[in-house]
Write a structure and sequence with these properties.
By secondary structure, the chain is an all-alpha fold. It has eight helices and no strands.
């Protein structure tokens, strides 16, 4: 395992969005700050709308087979109004190009994230 896989974001008391952030910040704080600034600029795009933005990011994490990313972006999509059908449909659209297995593997993570997002909004 590499250093980022063993990193515990709670070790230094900071609240990190991603598990790799603690290790990156410890080793290269300026790089970490620059990355956060770049990501904030992406998040500030006016188009596509926020729901579509999160669905696209979720689909990218499905393709990468990144369960934490799938959960996070499904949750964020739900928080801005995405229905389960929109989550499911977005995942299914990955099948022709990337195969059945990544999509099927993504479903429980997407469902868990979507449910968390709905609970967070009282839905």
């Amino acid at each position: 395992m590499g250093p980022t896989e063993n990193a515990d974001p709670s070790d230094d008391g900071d609240d990190w969005n991603f598990p790799f952030e603690a290790a990156l910040h410890a080793e290269a704080p300026a790089l970490h700050d620059a990355q956060n600034g770049w990501l904030a600029q992406i998040d500030s795009l006016r188009a596509p709308d926020r729901k579509t933005h999160e669905l696209i990011e979720m689909v990218c994490t499905v393709i990468l087979r990144n369960p934490p990313g799938i959960m996070r972006h499904a949750m964020l999509a739900a928080e801005v109004g995405a229905t389960w059908d929109e989550i499911l449909g977005s995942i299914v659209l990955t099948q022709p190009a990337f195969g059945l297995l990544p999509a099927v593997e993504a479903l429980p993570y997407a469902r868990r994230g979507w449910e968390r997002g709905r609970r967070a909004t009282g839905g």
